[in-house]
């Protein structure tokens, strides 16, 4: 494809072209949908910077999500709070050409990509990369019973049996039931929280593509998970649990139930989201099988690559737990979240 | 003089800060471009982008699989499928043999005339019946094992009884009653293709064998050891 490409601003939730392009693109994720982008903008007040790339005939050849996020000493355009913000590019178009158009749009552009997206040419287009972890994706190429027997580690089966023996059961829940569990988890981690209205906006906008699973013991919810069940993929987005109930293994049961739901719905992949190799979270996710794909954020211009780095947050984690009451304050938490945008 | 010193100091500090800034900036650019270059190499789909080690590993894998490098995914998929099939088969065999232990235990416990034993298994097939009968040849008795999974059977005759009884003759007597075919030796025979009531036919043969003087004699000779 040698035709000249140009970038134009677009409002995804007012553009049928955007939704059509996303729905028809093989590598699209829920994080490319107009509903997700609209939810992010509405809840956090970000300035939209989504673009569509057209050729000289006016045909849309690529779409790129992004909002303008202030970082204190500057601004970057990126898709916040998610692992995947890469451009969706038509197969006949060279991805390096699209990336060059994005780079030339000016400012700092952060593109979050994963090993499976198929987008190449970042180096050629002058982007610097920062590794941000891995995402484990489980391919559902066999029935659930086979996953249970031959893919899950023995510990998963043992923990699920423990959960059931201890009377833990999983049901579908609502955002209002999930949010207290989520807030408890964020307080435990000393990490700023999303406001409840963000979850509610996503649930309202995405409808059946969002599911909240709750693990109960007796009448008490002890763990939960917010799932995106969009297209061919289930994404386990924000798990939450109460530490006092970990001995009942509700998280194992929730993950297994999420995988079983995905199998029953005929989906092809369960994505467990980002984690750092070697961390306990990564170890937990790896028990369910799947393949760890490297996650990298690409930044143009490359001397601003530090803006995409997550290392600073990892280093701060030992301090932030002590500052949890301030960090997760209902006013402070969402503002910090907006600033950190991860 | 003091002003000159101050200007000099400020200049030195400014120079140091500027130098540090540019050195840091240069390092970030170098490192981030290295990451993006490695990304291109790792996500390359053509074989030209594979490293020598990767190519050697692929060649080794192909040799082990007795396949071309390009056929590796297909061969691995086939092997994986075969592995799963074997696992399922193994599980089924384990269940069958667990059944066999209980059923044969019932068949032998409380039997007044141990030299003849007939056992039937719902899910068994000819290979199971043959394996069971082969093992039963080591016992000093006549064993008829019925595999209802495919209406086949096996007959085993202990060595001390083979002068009087032939496994192949007993098998032929069964097929005369229920149809199908049978064959084997004096010690071990198998049959299949029965169209009649195979368990009933085996019971009739059992009764007939127990009426045999020779069998009763074998029974008395085979009294329990002290």
In whole angstroms, the N-to-C terminal distance of chain B is 122 Å
Examine the secondary-structure arrangement and name the CATH architecture of the largest domain in chain A: 3-Layer(aba) Sandwich
Let me know the largest β-sheet of chain B: 5 strands, mixed
Number of helices of chain A: 12
CATH architecture heading of the largest domain in chain B:
Roll
Strand order in the sheet with the most strands of chain A? 8-15-9-14-13-12-11-10
Keywords:
heterodimer, A: 342 residues, alpha+beta, Aminopeptidase, 2 domains, eight-stranded mixed β-sheet, 12 helices, B: 226 residues, Diaminopimelate Epimerase, Chain A, domain 1, five-stranded mixed β-sheet, 5 strands, 12% strand, rod-shaped
Draw up the topology in text.
The complex is a heterodimer of chains A (342) and B (226).
Chain A: E1 6-9, H1 16-24, H2 34-44, E2 47-48, E3 51-54, E4 60-64, E5 67-70, E6 75-78, E7 88-89, H3 95-104, E8 109-114, E9 128-139, H4 144-151, H5 154-165, E10 168-172, H6 175-189, H7 196-206, E11 210-217, E12 220-230, E13 233-241, H8 250-264, E14 269-275, H9 280-286, E15 291-300, H10 311-320, H11 324-327, H12 332-340
Parallel strand pairs in A: 13-14
Antiparallel strand pairs in A: 1-3, 2-5, 3-4, 4-7, 5-6, 8-15, 9-14, 9-15, 10-11, 11-12, 12-13
Chain B: H1 2-43, H2 52-65, H3 72-108, E1 116-121, H4 126-136, E2 142-147, E3 152-157, H5 167-178, E4 181-184, E5 188-192, H6 198-210, H7 213-221
Describe the structure.
The complex is a heterodimer of chains A (342) and B (226). Chain A is an alpha+beta fold. Chain A has two domains: 6-126, Gcn5-related N-acetyltransferase (GNAT) (Aminopeptidase, 3-Layer(aba) Sandwich), CATH 3.40.630; 136-293, Gcn5-related N-acetyltransferase (GNAT) (Aminopeptidase), CATH 3.40.630. In chain A, 35% of the residues lie in helices and 27% in strands. Chain A contains twelve helices and 15 strands. Chain A has an eight-stranded mixed sheet. A four-stranded antiparallel sheet of chain A has the order 1-3-4-7, sandwiched between helices. The two termini of chain A are 35 Å apart. Chain B is an alpha+beta fold. Chain B folds into two domains: 51-110, no CATH class; 113-221, Diaminopimelate Epimerase, Chain A, domain 1 (Roll). In chain B, helix 5 (167-178) crosses helix 6 (198-210). Chain B has a five-stranded mixed sheet, sandwiched between helices. Chains A and B meet through strand 9, helix 4 and strand 15 of A and helix 1 of B.
